[in-house]
Amino acid sequence: MDIGLIGLGRMGAGMARRWHRNGHRVVVTNRSHGPIDELKSEGLQGVYSYEELVQALPAPRAIWIMLPAGGVTDKTIDALIPLLSPGDTIIDGGNTNFNDDIRRATALKPHGIGYIDQGTSGGIWGLENGFCIMVGGEPEGVTRLEPAFRTLAPPDGYVHCGPVGAGHFVKMVHNGIEYGMMQAYAEGFEIMRAKEEFGIDLHAVASAWRYGSVVRSWLLDLTEQALREDPDLASLKGYVEDSGEGRWTIQAAIDLDVPAPVITLSLFERFHSRQPESFAAKVLAAMRRGFGGHAVKTAEGGTVPPERTA
To answer: pLDDT truncated to tens, each residue of the chain (310 aa)?
Structure first.
């Protein structure tokens, strides 16, 4: 089928290549021209404006947007509306908030333009291994584009989750679960590292756990690879960002009165990783010294001994 794609970052470019390798005709565009030219050299069709993109696709058109969530994607959709025709469909494959999907679909309906949200997981490995595809949208529009969705996904890795918003909602929860799993692995390996008298080879443990263990997973595979290349992870700083979906998952849990303590704590641990020095910890130290006379560490690295009580 004919596919238009806006946004050639790591995920977008991987999707374009996977479609192209499987016989789809793919027309791509991007803000910077380098990625367009690179894909053109591989046989894909590249254009340098939205007008050219729309003109290059037969109706009814299907245009995927792989851009940062929020305002950038909204502006792109606004720019496409006057160029598209009734029956065309916009598919947002980025990490969008599901509430934005519902709003956009409502705004596009008077123009006769369809809207589908595509939750996409697989990262830089999706090109070779396939992307897990979670789709939200009306059945008729989704069915028409299923050849493209199924090409992106590995066998059994595609699911139509429900109406508009459902795909990104499921992807949001997926990422919330991911936060919790990553935090559990991180804590477990730190506990083993702290037991210094055992001299545990963390890479060997990670490698063994990959086979037959109930905690085996792709995340563990990535951990094993990282420990193999850098056993002490000395080249990394323990600073962890969040993409926003963990926050959205927690907000949805609050809205739905669903307890989600593990996901919530894993997000807060990411916040904790970004503090070079915790003011809250200083407050705790001050209180402990105040009520119990406990020893405290000074800003210069020394130690103030415990206060003696009468």
So the answer is: 999 999 999 899 999 999 999 999 999 999 999 999 999 999 999 999 999 999 999 999 999 999 999 999 999 999 999 999 999 999 999 999 999 999 999 999 999 999 999 999 988 888 889 999 999 999 999 999 999 999 999 999 999 999 999 999 999 999 999 999 999 999 999 999 999 999 999 999 999 999 999 999 999 999 999 999 999 998 888 888 888 899 999 999 999 999 999 999 999 999 988 888 888 888 888 777 788 666 767 766 666 666 544 3
Among 178, 190, 196, 300, the one annotated catalytic: 178
* Cα dihedral 11, 189, 210, 184 sign: negative
pTM score, two decimals?
A: 0.90
Cβ atoms of 257 and 177 within 8 Å: the answer is no
Marked catalytic residue, from 171, 195, 196, 269: 171
Specify whether 109 is catalytic.
no
The string over 57-82, giving b where at least 16 C-beta atoms fall within 10 Å of a residue's C-beta and e elsewhere, is beebbbbbbbbebeeebbebbeebee
Cβ burial of 54 (10 Å; 0-12, 13-18, 19+) is: buried
Residues 170/161, Cβ–Cβ less than 8 Å: yes
The answer to whether 171 is a known catalytic residue is yes
